[in-house]
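Researcher: Here's the sequence for the chain we discussed earlier.
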Amino acid sequence: MDEYINGQGIQARKSLQWVNWADNDYIAARQLLLADALIQGSGLSCTAIEKYFKALFVLLNIEIPKGFKGHNICALYEEIKKKDIKRNISEDYLILLFKSYKLRYPDNLESGYNIALNRTKLLIGLDQAIYEIRKGFDYKSNNKKIITKLDDLVEKGSSNLLNKNCYFGNYDRATLFKESCYCYELRVLQQDDILEASYFTDGMDDDEKFNSEGLKPKQK
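Model: Thanks. This is the structure I predict for it:
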């Protein structure tokens, strides 16, 4: 069941502003992922979802946290769920994105930090999450629907939005998972000693698991 939240006046305008900012980040994140810039794409995906959640915070009259807490999309989603607003979003995906957010400053990564990113799952997770979040927003002015950037891209059939998109578009999910996929993994062995690997796979399982261990050591 979809939940719609009523807001008007300044409250609605502030929420719409967050949505417009998030739409821009979402489209940019997709382009980065499709170009195999997985670190940058996952980081911007996190920022896009953060802004969509903050649009909900405004409508739900929840105070938006400042500083690093304001970037924790897992904690933001927990606050939204407390208001009985739930979407079909993988929380394992949210954990991975917030984990990837730390890659902005790799010199600050703690020993043992590890991450595994791959294009197919990052793209699927992003499109599904945004589709689930965005379907609850419906802004109007004088009883006329306000056309957001995302609405405009859908209407125009923009490839920036619809290319390999299984949610806003009609790309086949099974086909996407059969395609060659770029992957990147990282593990911090100790301070200033970082191990990285990048490679391609001939498809992968659609197991809905996102937060896998990166460069997992072999057991003795």
